[in-house]
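forwarding from the other thread:

> can someone predict this with beta-D-fucopyranose?

sure thing
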Amino acid sequence: MTTRSAEPAPLPRFPADFVWGASTAAYQIEGAAEEDGKGPSIWDTFVRREGAVRDGDTGDVACDHYHRFGEDVALMRALGLDAYRFSISWPRVLPTGAGKVEPRGLDFYDRLVDALLEAGIEPTPTLFHWDLPQALEDEGGWMSRETAYRFGAYAAVVAERLGDRVRRWITLNEPFVHMSFGYGFGVHAPGRALLLDALPVAHHQLLGHGLAVDAIRTAVPDAQVLIANNCSPVRLRSDAESAADHRATEAYDILHNRLFNDPLLLGSYPDLSAFGQPDPSWGGIVREGDAAVIAAPLDGLGINYYNPTWVTAPADPSGVLPFDLAEPEQAYRRTAFDWPVVPDGLTELLVGLRARYGKALPPVWITENGCSEPAGLDDRARVDYLAGHVGAIAQARSQGVDVRGYFTWSLLDNFEWAEGYRQRFGLVEVDFATQVRTPRASFAWYRDLIASQRP
Ligand code: FCB
């Protein structure tokens, strides 16, 4: 009763083929922003906007992974990773988004894939992690339907080049966050504050996803194709449980979760009346035939989970959004980002997905999960966070949810979007002045966890 241990509780055994991985994204780590013919992306533009990013940070150099990927793959090998999720920079491959391919850009990913395979690590590329070619943004970005077709064509170029060695593919990263932060509120690139007028961005990304699935399968017949959706279970506060509060949670769930999962898994959008869009065609944005393209069968659903969301009925019912975001009533531990640490929210999310989609739910992969903690190597808080969430996955599995893999965010400290280099998510600390990488306590913990799960 009196023993207190700093070590997290032992974890249950996962199956031998459960995939242990780590995630990163191109703009957050690569640097080399103008090298080897790369075109500008919306992030290259946005970071130069006064006040857009904390401390005026940019991803120009970031972790200099473009030049140091060999060292980073060695770190992954030391961790014992089964798989590595990285993203491909669209403007490195197609500097203006379409048309002329930049062979040096493709060559970089070719070298990275070979280095990973050589280290026994399965490459798991994401085709779009928010760095849209600026030339396409100039033509409307994801507000334009044309961008979906461009994305399909870009997917074909990459799949044809890497498809002889890459089997598992992820199309988009977090279309919800890109729509809401990038086009709805303008706090991420491209920095457009269209509020609910940003809805077409959801549809065009999903259409692009469907076209990319087709392009990947054409080039790589045995490909496994996933999407990485950010999902958040929606919670009520015990002092806010009126019918209006329930309606608000339902509305939030539609916007954050169902808008992106329903069309993929059920072939139709949820009712968007609460968002001023009662027309199922969204005023002509959703065209005949699109639903079938979007619902192309998936081999897995990637889930990025960080925390639940608490909402209440809007204080101003005539406002634009049919909910207010609220604070949890419970005093959860907070990460450096001030995000509440709620591992059982992940079990709730996974079990909820299974209940909602039943047999239509493909195997699930946790494609991101992790936390920002203060600088330093002794990151016990991160170890607790990761252990809690891996335990939550074991719980969901024991309740019948088919979870096949876990990719932690992130391998390295990196450029955390509007927060610049202030928020540190890495198992490996990066000194951005010297580019020295130093594994943290969480690195050793994850390495030992992976090793202990080997048959
Ligand atoms: C996710 C992003 C990822 C990273 C983490 C902290 O929303 O996909 O790039 O910034 O948050």
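The chain has one domain: 19-453. thats all i got for now
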